[in-house]
Write a structure and sequence with these properties.
6 helices; 4-stranded mixed β-sheet; alpha+beta; 149 residues; globular; 11% strand
């Protein structure tokens, strides 16, 4: 029996290939939620309003390759900017690994099941509103705390 660690525990984020990097994403889609920032103290508030490119069934972007063109403020998370993005939720798998923690027990790399995150209620699946149905001026009415869990 081998005591070999999984590849995501053996490598740092900067050592991962692009394919490995992409596999780290847990598909929670919390990064696809609109966020509001308090200009006075910098506090970031999550809303339950998500990007229209989000696939409601599996919490993937429906146009991942072109998302930054179609949604100019869509952020591409990289090894180089992960430390500057303070709004990443504590459960974000990139943040978890960057902080030296282990992937959650519900992560698809741990369970082998892409749906385990949704079954555990750790994604936004079934809990968000498409941005096309909400006026931007009403976002404050949609502030929620659950994405931080």
């Amino acid at each position: 029996m081998s005591n070999k660690q999984p590849w995501w525990e053996e490598k740092t984020l900067s050592e991962m290939s692009r394919t490995e990097w992409e596999q780290i994403c847990d598909h929670c889609a919390k990064c696809c939620l609109h966020k509001l920032e308090d200009e006075e103290d910098g506090t970031v508030y999550y809303t339950d309003v998500a990007c229209s490119l989000l696939d409601a069934e599996n919490c993937n972007c429906t146009d991942y390759e072109n998302r930054r063109t179609r949604v100019p403020d869509c952020l591409q998370l990289t090894v180089g900017n992960i430390d500057q993005i303070q709004w990443m939720p504590p459960s974000c798998s990139y943040r978890v690994l960057k902080e030296g923690r282990s992937l959650a027990s519900w992560h698809h790399l741990v369970t082998g099941d892409d749906n385990s995150i949704h079954q555990e209620g750790k994604s936004i699946k079934g809990r968000y509103i498409d941005e096309s149905k909400v006026d931007e001026d009403d976002l404050e009415e949609h502030v929620v705390e659950w994405p931080l869990n």
